[in-house]
Amino acid sequence: MAEHDDEPRGAERILRAAIDVIAERGFRGAATSEIARRAGVAEGTIFRHFKTKQVLLTHIVEPFVQRVLAPLALRDVQRLLGDDYPSFADFLRAFTRNRLDVARANLPILRIILQEVPLNPELQAMMVRHIGAQLFPQMLAIIRRHQVRGELRDDPPEAILRVTISAFGGYVITRHMLLPDRAWDDDAEIERMIRVIVRGFAPDPPA
Questions:
Q1: CATH of the domain at 133
Q2: More confident position, 73 or 195
């Protein structure tokens, strides 16, 4: 195979090929020989740019989280904090539709994150550092705002956030990984999830 590796374009080709292979086969099933073949480089070139396969995975995920996912999430939440949404349902509707757009635009890397973060402590720490530590306090502030308004019951805001993330995260996984060929109606699915969350955390009626 004629190798056409020059710095830094060789590394960029390796990263692009690795994204495709790991998204298709998972990190453990992704052979560096296949990554090299798709990148048009010798297999040893991968380890010249990235010392280990784990380093290669980190170079895929961290720049995306740091430069794309975290700034978008934080910008959107900060905007939502500044807007006076009439209801918690309206907030969820605006936030979720934006997240689905981001998922569609970055599906291969999103698949890698969903597959690998639960199994990889290093990636978990990176997600907390870039997203969780900044995003979660702001999301909790939004939940508390709607609790003060009397829309949500006086449960711990962390519990409401956890259920909300589980519902919408589960939909993204099912929509894009488990059943991607189904004819999904995103608007209808979003409304169903919002209805369940809002009704489930609605205050108890007066006795």
A1: 1.10.357.10
A2: 195
Distance from C-alpha of 106 to C-alpha of 69, rounded to nearest angstrom: 10
Top mean pLDDT of 27-36, 78-87, 193-202 is at 193-202
Residue 163: the pLDDT is 96
What percent of the chain has pLDDT above 70?
91
Q: pLDDT tens, 4-16?
A: 555 557 888 898 8
pLDDT at 195 over 90: yes
Q: Domain range spanning residue 139?
A: 58-200
Residue type at 121? P
Q: What is the dihedral of CA 139, 89, 71, 8, to 10 degrees?
A: 130
Alpha carbon distance 108, 120 (integer Å): 18
Is residue 5, in this structure, part of any structural domain at all?
yes
